[in-house]
């Protein structure tokens, strides 16, 4: 009985640690996609508009969020995934500051 319980315990630990490492590594999902080979113009505006809609969908002041997200996207040509955080995916977006030295991009 003790051997069976010990084997079951060790097996469950191995399975749990494998699942945890898969979850932490992300399995390659959720990475930010850089803007396609678009330099500027209507295509970039359309691409940024779609990405900023997703980024700002839960914002309290959606119009302001869309404005600044669009400005940052046009300059950086990337927008972090999700509605908040993940700025490590786009260093330019993360590092842009307002004149008051606060983060410019939502």
Topology:
Elements: H1 2-25, H2 42-55, H3 62-76, H4 91-95
Helix pairs in contact: 2-3
Report on the architecture of this protein.
Helix 2 crosses helix 3. With 106 residues, the protein is an all-alpha fold. The protein is built from four helices and no strands. The protein has helices at residues 2-25, 42-55, 62-76, 91-95.
Task: List the keywords.
106 residues, mainly alpha
Low-confidence stretches: 22-29
Using DSSP, what is the number of strands?
A: 0
- Shape call: elongated
Strand content: under 5%
Secondary-structure element order, N to C? HHHH
For the report, how would you describe the main beta sheet?
A: none
**Structural class of the secondary elements?**
mainly alpha
Instruction: Quickly count the helices.
Output: 4
- Round the Cα radius of gyration to an integer and report it: 21 Å
Span of the ends, CA to CA? 57 Å
Mean pLDDT across the residues is 80
Overall helicity: 40-55%
């Amino acid at each position: 009985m003790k051997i069976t319980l010990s084997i079951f315990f060790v097996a469950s630990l191995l399975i749990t640690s494998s699942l945890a490492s898969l979850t932490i590594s992300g399995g390659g999902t959720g990475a930010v996609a850089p803007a396609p080979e678009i330099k500027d113009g209507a295509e970039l505006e359309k691409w940024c508009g779609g990405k900023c809609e997703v980024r700002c969908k839960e914002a309290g002041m959606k119009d302001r969020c869309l404005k600044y997200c669009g400005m940052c996207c046009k300059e950086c040509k990337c927008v972090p995934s999700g509605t908040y955080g993940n700025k490590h995916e786009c260093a330019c977006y993360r590092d842009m500051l307002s004149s008051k030295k606060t983060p410019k991009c939502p």
